Amino acid sequence: MADRIETIDGSLIQHGRHNDRIYLMHLHGMAAGNLIPKLDRMARDHGYTKIFAKVPATRWKAFKSAGYTREALIPGFFRGRVDGLFIAKFFSEQRRKAPPRQPVDPPAPPFAEAPPAGRCAPPVEACTPSDAGEMGALYHRAFDSYPFPIHRPDYLTRVMGKNAFYWCIRVEKRIAAIAAAEIDPASQACEMTDFATLPGYTGRGFAQVLLGRLMDEARRRDVKTAYTIARDDSRAMNRVFQKTGYGYAGRLINNSQIGGRIRSMNVWYRVV
């Protein structure tokens, strides 16, 4: 069952057994002082082993005093002016224990959003609600599990076109690769997410082409900062972001249910 999304005192959270965590997705105003003990109580009542939060650096003092640790930092995350922190509080020593760090490649040469020389960029198309069934089927094939229910057409239809914009590459009229930009107008930040390629089409540079189109969409919508949260054991996906000018922001320990188990994730960012 997918984790629930709800609000507490105006702050948006996701929580449930699937990711075994609470995710504070958006902190409302000055609510940190009142919200922190409510999140602690919820975690203990439900037996969750982690609280993961995305907050402005200006609210760090309150969370630090409550036992949170900083896992990643993105400069200028909020409207290009205030740094964004990805922070965590653990309720299990097993969850807190960091698995071996996967190697991150050395800094890449000057980036390019176009495909490598000698390759012709395939056309990229915007997805529409009528594509939701095929999109969900692709995600179901690509992931044994995922932090959000992107395999469900009803979920995709609900989020598509609000602040989530999906783009795809088709081969012989069939979706072969897909990705999304989730834009938060309030922070002027954009998460590049939900990348998937059908087996048989990997290694063709489709993810890099899609990322280039997502960056175009971000610029068009006045986004200041783009970021992604990528599996730390997916060297190919991490390389896509590194090669296109993203900087490494940190590592989220045992954070997300993806590919059949809870995994650690790398955070990458880039000024748009």
From TrEMBL:
GO MF, one example? N-acetyltransferase activity
Q: Which InterPro entries match?
A: Acyl_CoA_acyltransferase, GNAT_AblB, GNAT_dom
Q: Keywords assigned by UniProt?
A: Transferase
Indicate, by first and last residue, each region the UniProt record lists as having compositional bias (Pro residues).
Answer: 100-113
The record, for Pfam families, names: Acetyltransf_1
Ranges where the record places region Disordered:
97-116
Record-annotated N-acetyltransferase domain positions: 122-272
Q: Where are the transmembrane segments?
A: none
Q: Which Gene3D superfamilies match?
A: 3.40.630.30
SUPFAM superfamilies assigned: Acyl-CoA N-acyltransferases (Nat)
**Official protein name in the record:** N-acetyltransferase YodP
Which organism is the protein's source? Desulfosarcina alkanivorans
